[in-house]
């Protein structure tokens, strides 16, 4: 299922959207650029073949905790989304730096608001409001 | 503007003297019409007299709630950081901070995460014991909320719930928390089966009375309604999705739960969620009875869940692990990340459904009349410790 999800994202949104990915016993991790979070989350929520409608959680971790190469010490932010039908979540991972801001997904997932506020307040991550 | 309503402090005080959602106070806050103080909990012995305040800032038009905002803190980081400093066995025990009365949901989620991280692979009997403990804890949790709702309404069914609770007291006590040392005085499966049979009969009576109780259904029907799409968007699972005819439940992923029925209801309102608690208890009792029948009788003692002896000495074999269970209010999850650098401690993340429920309260109570608020809040299974950790 997860391999076809990567293909699906690439076929609908372009080859350069998924920067890296891996699967473990807890689901599928996709690395993307912060600027794409809203569009990818929108696609994953609304695509009839995917329907990740359940907001799960947002986590913030240092780069050395995930199994891919890192060019900097920027923190990584993880957005976990689930389907009400599939057992495992899909996790969107983005490297964040001081200069970057991340588009808010609260319009897509109301539960993200509090978590976005939390990472903004506690870790200084800049969250950009969406129209 | 001064609030024209006079609301007694005692209105929201649980008559059962539970500490959750403990009292209401007219606003002392600037620019606030009404401020509901929902919890004040001491975290002794871990922290000395730390008062936790969860507030609900209400804007009223007449007696109608037109807007509200919930205030919670970000204390969870402290608990999560704290777990990284402990050996696994002590970390499991320390989760009593989150839910002092019934920490077993979080403790078992953490044990499952450690099992995976350390490659311990608990045997089938151990996993089955986890599930049995979780179902007893689920029953106990739902009984508390049912009592709270009845206490708010002052209904005549409270004695029946207390009777049900007394029928189940022995097995429920066994699943209250994880013990470091295995209790020598285990219960016998036969006694538990008898208790479950008695409880089934009382529960049937309770269900019939609840369905006939117009005062109760009118107080909860079409109140605090959240549809499926909004519930999922807010991060709510458990009763919130199942009250919308969706049977999403992590128990379906477990082979030990193959025979459990996952009840659903319709309407997405406080009534659907309330009735689901009774249906959940019925379903748990049925599953427990079947499971206990299938347990090999030579293993006749039913002891408290214990922590593996080798928890503190094993080295991680995985870089990342997750323990997740279906709690009575939704998905509970503990994630553990280990670093590629040897000098960095493991990171822990805890997902508490109560946190998401608390933040959905403003959505749920919009349009309610102020006198309806205590009942709705008491129908939610959240505790101050779970929300503001």
Can you put this structure into words, describing what you see?
By secondary structure, chain A is an alpha/beta fold. In chain A, a hairpin with a 7-residue loop joins β4 and β5. Chain A is globular. The termini of chain A are far apart. In chain B, a hairpin with a 2-residue loop joins β7 and β8. Chain B starts with 24 loop residues before the first strand and ends with a helix. In chain B, 43% of the residues lie in helices and 12% in strands. Chain B has 389 residues and is an alpha+beta fold. Chain B contains 14 helices and 9 strands. In chain B, α4 packs antiparallel against α5 and α4 packs antiparallel against α11. In chain B, the strands form 3 sheets. Chain B has a 4-stranded antiparallel β-sheet. Chain B has a 3-stranded antiparallel β-sheet with strand order 7-8-9. In chain B, strands 5-6 form a two-stranded antiparallel ribbon. Classes of the chains: A alpha/beta (131), B alpha+beta (389). The interface between A and B is medium-sized, with 27 and 39 residues.
Give a quick set of tags describing it:
heterodimer; A: five-stranded mixed sheet; two-stranded parallel sheet; B: 389 residues; alpha+beta; three-stranded antiparallel sheet
Strand order of the largest sheet of chain A: 1-2-5-4-3
- Approximately how much helix is present in the residues of chain B? 40-55%
Q: Helical percent range of chain A? A: 25-40%
Number of helices of chain B: 14
Which series of helices and strands of chain A comes N to C? HEEHEEEEHE
Instruction: Round the Cα radius of gyration of chain A to an integer and report it.
Output: 14 Å
Secondary-structure-derived class of chain A: alpha/beta
Number of helices of chain A: 3
Approximately what portion of the residues of chain B adopt beta-strand conformation? 5-15%
Provide the structure class of chain B. Answer: alpha+beta
Largest sheet of chain A: 5 strands, mixed
Distance between the termini of chain B: 33 Å
Given as residue ranges, the uncertain stretches of chain B (5+ residues, pLDDT < 50) are 1-27, 40-51
> What order do the strands of the largest sheet of chain B run in, or round the barrel if closed?
1-2-3-4
Overall mean pLDDT of chain A stands at: 87
Largest beta-sheet details of chain B: 4 strands, antiparallel
